[in-house]
Structure formats: structure tokens, C-alpha cells
Design brief:
About 40% of the residues lie in helices and about 15% in strands. By secondary structure, it is an alpha/beta fold. Bound molecules: nicotinamide-adenine-dinucleotide (NAD). Nicotinamide-adenine-dinucleotide binds near residues 130, 184 and 196.
Length: about 325
């Protein structure tokens, strides 16, 4: 079904040199789509040219910024699909520099949508939203009906970005769907620091044979392997009954961070970590336990995670054992 849907079609991915965007680009190239990647390659974010190693001749890369209204006006034209993944992802950075987060995660999203409205209203858009918009869960697992009360600036701006997308669907008939991602992990994630995911820095330290830090350790989380996330993006892009709707993604299991650290060390065949108290500035914006109820997405489109966590960790370690130097 994916090949029929995407073969020969024009696909634009914002944030296409980043972790999820580049994995999506690889899959779409394999499906014979004509893929264009937009990415600003701001060094603090997850974009990395090495993420497209091996497909660099099969995609068009446009190094530009989604905050640039004029670029966006031009770039969305004549595209069939837009996977809108460009974002500032660090929760701490959003607290220290709220206006950059606002500009990228909210204002630029309006540029993109306005450009589509004026110049390409037939495009189908999938927006990468986040579980962060729910804030501290009032009940678990968190379904799409859970109240929205983000605990940080990033969550508020992503929520605005998400709602702009839904509004353009409802008011202007531009087909948009939203995926609310939980922790997504896999090859090509940022491991240099913890800006994108704490698992990144864990993997880096483990491979550098240094102890990594687990803060608190009791928090419960779920994890989606990136190939499963890519499946989800393709599914909603192709499905008209997903238009104007937001769906949670989730993981195959729920695990505490301490148990995750143990599993990672076990899969690696060795390594050490230390448990520390949460730093106070992080504690203030921590959401506590979170795991998603993704049954709406499963019953609507049949999506469920296929890659077990242990296997996901094995694939991640294998990738960075080979390529860690490209990510430092
Ligand atoms: N990885 C996760 O666990 C996770 C969880 C929830 C939501 N998300 C969302 O998924 C999307 C992709 O995340 P990711 O994990 O691949 O992160 P990432 O940082 O690897 O990818 C984002 C990409 O966007 C690019 N970008 C940032 N600002 C830009 C700008 N102004 N103009 C053009 N490009 C810009 C970055 O250079 C980067 O390549 C983000 O929108 C993020 O909020 C990710």
C-alpha cells in the first residue's frame, strides 16, 4: 500500500536531516518517492548530514529555516505530502530561550500552514506533536482525551503548533493529521548531549566506557522505535479518515528508567551508571510517570509498535558502535 501511495509522489520533510526525519526519508526513498528535505542544521539540534549517508544522491536537500517565510512559500509548492518535523526539541532550552522556541515551534508553523493555504491547498500534512502537551498525567495510560496542561514552554508552543494544524484542516480544508509522539529512539538520534533524549547521552557514555547518570530512576516511560514511528507517519499520511485528528503513539512496554538503564547495560554486555537526584531546574518541569494509550490509533488505522524495546536497544548500540564519531 505504501508503494502505491508514495511512488513517484513529491514529498517534503521539514527537519529532514534530523533523527526521525532522516529515517522517514530513507523509507520514502525506498518507496520511490521524490523527496526534498528542509533543514537549518542549527548545531544544537539533531540535524546531521551523516543521517542521509547512502541516500544523499537520491534526495534534494535544502538548507533553509522554517522561520523564513519566503523560503517556505516557495518550497511547499507542487508537493503532494508534507511531513512537518522541524522543531526545537529541548525542554530546558525552551525555558532558557523561550522566544526561539516560540518562533520555531509555533510562529513558523503558521508560515508553513499559510503557505500551504495560499499556494498548495491540496497537500496532505502530517505534524510531529509530542506527549509533552499533556503535562503531568492525571491518569495512566494517557489517552487523547486527557487534559492538556504542558509543564514547559516547549509543550505550550508545540501545542499551539499542533492546534494550528488542526484548525487549518477544520477551517480551510487543508488535510492535516497529528501524531503525538512519546520518547522515540533509534539510529540517528542525537547522542552528543541530552537535548533530544536522555537515552542519547546514556548511549554515548556507555560506548565511551564512562558511567552515565540516571536521575531518580523510578519514572515510568514508554519508547517507540523509530521504524515504528516511520510506519505511523506513512499510515496517517495515506489515510483520509485520519484528517483533522490527533493520535498518540506508544511503546511495546512500560519501564522505569532504572530498569531501562539495567536493560541497556545488559544488552551492551557491560557498563556502569550512577543514580542521582533530579537537578532542581529539571525537576520543576518533569512530568513524572508517563505512558500512552495508543488504542485509538490501533483501532482506527491498525498501528502498533512492532519492535520490542530490547531489540531496539540492540540496534541502537550496534549503530553507534560503528558511527559514534559522526555524532560527537
Ligand atoms: N524524538 C522524540 O522522542 C520526539 C518526541 C516527541 C516529539 N518529537 C517531535 O518530532 C520532531 C522531530 O524530532 P527529532 O527527534 O527527529 O529531532 P531532531 O532534532 O533530530 O529533528 C528536528 C530537525 O529539525 C531541524 N530544525 C530545527 N529548527 C529548524 C528550523 N528553524 N528550520 C529548519 N529546520 C529546523 C533540526 O536541525 C533537526 O534536524 C520534532 O518536531 C519533535 O518535537 C520528537
Amino acid at each position: 500500500m505504501n508503494r502505491e501511495t508514495f511512488s513517484g509522489r513529491k514529498v517534503l520533510i521539514t527537519g529532514g536531516l534530523g533523527f526521525i526525519g532522516s529515517n522517514l526519508a530513507r523509507r520514502l526513498v525506498g518507496l520511490d518517492a521524490h523527496v526534498t528535505l528542509i533543514d537549518s542544521l542549527i548545531p544544537e539540534y539533531g540535524g546531521n548530514l551523516f543521517n542521509i549517508a547512502g541516500i544523499e544522491d537520491k534526495v534534494r536537500v535544502n538548507i533553509s529555516d522554517v522561520r523564513d517565510e519566503y523560503s517556505m512559500k516557495y518550497l511547499v509548492q507542487r508537493q503532494d505530502y508534507l511531513f512537518n518535523l522541524a522543531g526545537q526539541t529541548s525542554h530546558m532550552d525552551s525555558m532558557q530561550d523561550p522566544f526561539t522556541d516560540l518562533d520555531i515551534n509555533a510562529k513558523a508553523q503558521l508560515f508553513i500552514l499559510e503557505s500551504c493555504h495560499k499556494y498548495n491547498p491540496d497537500i496532505k500534512i502530517v505534524f510531529a506533536s509530542t506527549r509533552q502537551i499533556y503535562g503531568k498525567p492525571e491518569y495512566l495510560p494517557v489517552d487523547e482525551k486527557h487534559p492538556l496542561r504542558p509543564v514547559d514552554i516547549n509543550g505550550v508552543n508545540k501545542l499551539a503548533g499542533e492546534w494550528y494544524h488542526l484548525l487549518y484542516n477544520d477551517v480551510y480544508g487543508i488535510r492535516t493529521s497529528v501524531l503525538r509522539l512519546t520518547n522515540t529512539i533509534g539510529p540517528r538520534m542525537r547522542v552528543k548531549d541530552a537535548r533530544q533524549t536522555f537515552l542519547g547521552i546514556w548511549v554515548r557514555f556507555l560506548l565511551e566506557r564512562k558511567p552515565f547518570e540516571v536521575w531518580d530512576g523510578h519514572q515510568l516511560r514508554d519508547f517507540t522505535y523509530v521504524d515504528d514511528a516511520v510506519d505511523a507517519f506513512l499510515l496517517v499520511a495515506a489515510a483520509d479518515d485520519a484528517n483533522g485528528r490527533a493520535f498518540n503513539l506508544g511503546g511495546d512496554c512500560v519501564i522505569s528508567l532504572k530498569d531501562l538503564a539495567d536493560l541497556l547495560v545488559e544488552v551492551n554486555g557491560g557498563g556502569e551508571y550512577i543514580v542521582r537526584k533530579f537537578p532542581p531546574d529539571r525537576k520543576r518541569i518533569d512530568i513524572g510517570d508517563y505512558y500512552a494509550d495508543y488504542s485509538l490509533f490501533r483501532s482506527t488505522l491498525g498501528w502498533e509498535p512492532k519492535v520490542p524495546l530490547r531489540e531496539a536497544l540492540g540496534k541502537i548500540l550496534q549503530y553507534y558502535k560503528q558511527h559514534l564519531d559522526k555524532y560527537l
